[in-house]
Specification:
Layout lengths: L2 H12 L5 E5 L5 H9 L4 E4 L2 H10 L5 E4 L8 H4 L5 E5 L2 H13 L4 E7 L12 H10 L8 E8 L7 H22 L8 E3 L6 H6 L4 E4 L1 H4 L6
Parallel strand pairs: 1-2, 1-8, 2-3, 3-4, 4-5, 5-6, 6-7
Bound molecules: pyridoxal-5'-phosphate.
């Protein structure tokens, strides 16, 4: 068994049954994806439209591709025909564009709303207030080719575990609040996408059911 496969088995064995794993394969080659596919992994996460397009062309059709990165509106048309879930929707305009492109290819595209919780300026997403306002405005209900399946967030990049826990916990509380207010009978509104290689243990304790793990699985990324 290769080192990657044993890392995969180890991670899988620690995940509770109701937590899904997104294997974040960005910047890693097709053969690494094939190897995990061969041992049963089906959900892979990418963050660049072109890389996703190229990989999806040559890999098995039953892979569930998740787009996890910041998505520009100009790239939506490339991503929509391929993806099973878009994690990081950070504006109503982006949601509208996803809907428009999804309508063109006659698809229903599940989306998560990204919440900005980290201290860093650089991270994208709605504040709680912005997200609540967008949902209250109600226009999203007219977008028939998208479905809002939950929330996504990234914690501050810090060693302070208490801070990371507080951030995930706040998003989890917010998830429950908006589920109650806007998605009471929506069975599909159930995805809590938080937790990466360094913090997925805390994330699961704080309600995550979709973890996005890259480097712990594939090794360090080579950004060229
Ligand atoms: C790259 C990336 C990950 C994976 O990060 P690791 O620390 O390598 O596990 C998870 N989520 C998002 C949004 C990413 O861009």
């Amino acid at each position: 068994m290769s080192e990657m496969t044993s890392r995969y088995r180890l991670i899988k064995s620690t995940l509770p049954k109701d937590v899904d794993l997104v294997a974040v394969s960005k910047y890693h080659p097709v053969n690494a994806i094939s190897e995990l596919y061969a041992v049963g992994q089906r959900i892979f996460g990418e963050s660049r439209a072109q890389e996703l397009t190229e990989k999806s062309k040559v890999l098995p059709k039953d892979i569930e591709w998740h787009f996890i990165g910041h998505l520009q509106r100009s790239n939506v048309k490339h991503v929509v025909p391929i993806v099973a879930l878009i994690h990081a929707v950070d504006s109503f305009r982006l949601l509208q564009e996803i809907n428009k492109q999804a309508e063109r290819c006659d698809r229903l595209v599940p989306c998560l709303l990204q919440i900005h919780i980290a201290e860093e300026e650089s991270k994208f997403g709605f504040t709680f207030a912005e997200c609540r306002d967008m949902l209250k405005a109600g226009e999203w209900k007219n977008l028939n080719n998208i479905r809002i399946d939950g929330l996504m967030c990234m914690a501050t990049n810090t060693d302070d575990e208490a801070q990371i826990r507080n951030e995930f916990s706040a998003v989890n509380t917010f998830f429950k609040e908006i589920k109650q207010e806007f998605f009471t009978n929506a069975e599909n509104f159930r995805r809590c996408s938080w937790g990466m290689s360094d913090d997925y243990g805390i994330a699961i304790q704080e309600g995550s059911n979709l973890v996005r793990i890259g480097s712990k699985l594939f090794g360090e990324r080579n950004y060229l």
